[in-house]
Amino acid sequence: MLILVISLSPRPRLRSRHADVTVAGTSATDDDIDYWLSSDGFTLQSQGRCAAALLPKADSVIAVVSEGDVAWHRITLPKAPSSRLRAALVGVLEEALLDDADATHLALAPGAVAGLATWVAAINRAWLRAELATLERHRVFVDRVVPAAWPDTPPRGHFSQAGGGVAADGSRSTPQDVALTWSHADGVATLRLHGGLARALLPADLPPDARWTATPEVATAAERWLGSPVRVVSAAECALQATRTLWNLRQFDLVARHRGTRAARDAWRRWLSPGWRPVRYGLLALLAVQVIGLNAWAWHLRSELSSQRQTMVALLQTTFPQVSAVLDAPLQMQREVDALRVAAGRSSAIDFETMLLAAAAAWPDDQPPVDNLHYESGRLTLAATGWGDAEIARFRSQLQPAGWQVEASEGRISLSRAPAGMTP
């Protein structure tokens, strides 16, 4: 399964001496996009930078949002139906949101449970919607949108080159300093190293289990500022690490909608994903066990059937030595028994005389003798004009214990031998 990871450029901002101001109406995907290709989310196959229309095809597309574009809020998840959950979240976060609630897209942490504390990611809705729409215009359908950093333990500090944003005259400024993204159990903060804000906000005693990483271009500056070594990671490693999170910012009105062949392709793609590999192996193993078991059981049944046939052949040839060729042992044995019975002058259970005697024994006393009857191949039909339901039931109950089957229809009663296993 081929995974395409793309990096959404940070939301365009105007640079001023005092603050960063968001620029409206500009889509970062109108420019070239950094992308990475991987078959399992761990190993990098290729990477590059190109326009959205030239992005390579893949089975799954994951977009990564930069750290500075996502705000994090810790709340107790309200109990509300899914159709009203976003409105309930807005009610809880209304005072904490920096933008208007209608302009903010919210996403819940994976596995969030109503009534328990959870994280909520907040991001500019218009910007994210525009990014996704631009990609979809170029036939790039994003399955998941994941943050580059999220609240987690153990804490992690990642040093990267800080983007300069967009200058007031519209030209892109060059990176000028180093930014630290500090992800910990209480949230995510992105701070520039120049000045004293970063040192003031970090704990005085840094956690011993904290993981420190840096991109190659800022590794030296990061080690000098931190005073200890850091692990150098590339942008590709950071992007692939982000894809392995369970977070997905495509929720509520931005959830991916699939129809027709896209839905089928999505289901097949998920089935082939690394996360479903144990299930696939388990099903294959189960299928193999079933096939082996069915073959073993079939072999056992064939062996039993062959043994029974040999037993019947041996019984036939022992009882009737004159039978030389055995084609159908039960049928041939029945014929030999019938021949002996006829030779001895004895009637069988389905002969006319036997069936007539059985019917006479159960004939109702208040009914006249039968005026007509018909016999054919083990079935005796008698006229029963004027019989009531009680008389038919009594006639049937008297003959059933002896192994006879009685059927009544249109003033006639049919008598035949009950099949094997039906005799009470």
Can you tell me about this structure?
There is one protein chain. By secondary structure, the protein is of the alpha+beta class. The chain has three domains: 3-272, Nucleotidyltransferase, domain 5 (2-Layer Sandwich), CATH 3.30.420.380; 281-344; 352-417, General secretion pathway protein M, EpsM (Gyrase A, domain 2, 2-Layer Sandwich). It contains ten helices and 19 strands. Strand 16 (373-376) and strand 17 (379-383) form a beta hairpin. Helix 7 (277-319) packs parallel to helix 8. The longest helix is centred in the last third of the chain and has 43 residues, at 277-319. Residues 16-29 and 164-175 have low confidence and may be disordered.
Which SSEs are present, and which pair or pack?
Layout: E1 3-8, E2 13-15, E3 20-22, E4 33-38, E5 44-50, E6 60-65, E7 71-76, H1 85-93, E8 104-108, E9 117-124, H2 125-137, E10 144-147, E11 156-161, E12 178-184, E13 187-192, H3 197-201, E14 211-214, H4 219-226, E15 231-232, H5 235-243, H6 260-271, H7 277-319, H8 329-344, H9 352-362, E16 373-376, E17 379-383, H10 389-399, E18 404-409, E19 412-417
Parallel strand pairs: 1-6, 6-10, 11-14, 14-15
Antiparallel strand pairs: 1-4, 2-3, 4-5, 7-9, 8-9, 11-12, 12-13, 16-17, 17-19, 18-19
Helix pairs in contact: 7-8
